[in-house]
Amino acid sequence: MNFDTIIIGGGLTGLTAAIASAERGERTAIISAGQSALHFSSGTFELLGAVDGKPVTNPVEAMDRLPDTHPYRRIGRERMLSLLPLVQPLLSRAGIATTGNHYINRYRLTPLGKIKPAWLTLDDFATFDSPDRLPWRSVAIVNIADFQDFYPTFLARGLRDHGVECTISSTSIKELDNLRRSATEMRAANIARVLDYSAVCNLAGRIKSVGRGADAILMPAVLGLADDLMVSLLRRLVNKPLYFISTMPTSVPGVRAQMMLNRYFTNLGGTLMAGDTVTGARLDNGRVEAVFTNNHGPEPLTASRFIMATGSFFSHGLVATPSSVIEPVFGLDVDYPADRADWFSKNIGQAQPFMEFGVRTDDSWHPSIGGNTITNLQCVGSVTGGCNPIKQGCGAGVALLTALDVTTPRL
Question: Which CATH number fits the domain that encloses residue 377?
Fold first, then answer.
C-alpha cells in the first residue's frame, strides 16, 4: 500500500497532521494503536497556561520567557503567529465548535471550582474573560443521580469563593434505571450512549424544574459521544444558559472530539488504520522506505513522507528502561540525562525532568538514528519533548502547532 504521507499515531497531533495533509490533496494514512489522550480531555485546548509557575494571559508574549528547547521557541514567533489562526477553523471544519481568541487566553471552570487559563474551549463549556469576575449571581449545579464521577460540593465551594450563590441537586430519568443497577455502569460514556432524543427531552424537563430561578445551570459532561446533536438539543430545550463541566475519564467531549476528527479525516479520503501497531521499518540511505504493522504482516506500507506523532511515556511513544529511554518504533536518538537520578524530582509537587525528555530532532523536526538524520521522517507533538505540558499547560498547543508546522507550507 502506497501513500504520500503516513502518520504514526492517531491522537490530536496525528489527526491534525493527517487532516492538514489530506486537505492539501495528499493520499494520507494514520496508523493508530488505540485510545489517545483526547479520551482524558477537559474540554479545553490549552496553548500556554503558565511560565515559571505564574499564570499567563498573553501566551504569545510569554513564549519569549520559555527555554530555547521548548517547541514554541523552536517554531519561532513569526511562524507561531501564522499558525495560530489556522487551529480554530480546522476544528470547526471537523464540526468541533470552540470559543476563544487566537492569541489571548480566556479562563475556564474546572471540576473543582478553580479558574484556570484556557485557549480554545468547547462552546458548551463555561469560559470567562477574567478570573476575578464571573457572569452569574447564582447557579444551579445539577448532577445525574448516582453518578459518582462528578463533584458538585467542590464545584460549589469554588464558585462561592467567587461570590456565586449555588444550589446542588440531582435528577434522573427512567431511561437510566438499567445503568443505575450497577455503580460500575454509571459512567459518563455509558450515560451518553443512553441519552438519545427521547431521553434528552425527558431530561430537559427535569433540569428546567430544578434550575428554575438560577442565572445558569451547570451539569456534568455526559451527552454527545459521537457528535454534539444531543448537547445542542438539551441546551435548546432547557432555554437557559446551560454549561457542562468535565468529569473523571473517560471524557465524553474528548471521545466526541476524537470521533469527529476521525470522521472528518476519513471523509476527506484519508485511510485510518485503527487498532494497528507499527512493528518494524525498512530504512535505506537515511530515508524510511516502508513500515510494517501488526495487522498488515509482511505487506509494506510505503510513502514519500512519514510523520511520527506517538506521544510521550503516557502513550508509549517513549519507553523507560532501568538505564535508558528509548523510542520503540525506529530506535531514534533520544535526549535524556545519563544519570537516572536526574530523571525525576523526589518532590512530587515539582516539575519532573522526565516530562521534558524527547526524540532529538533538527530545526525541521527530522530525527536521527546514531547521529544520522532521517530525511523523510518528522517527529511532532510530545514525543519531541522540551516542555512540561502539566506545569506549563501547553499540551494541546504543542500537539496542534507542531503538527501544523510540518504540514503547512511556509510563505
Answer: 3.50.50.60
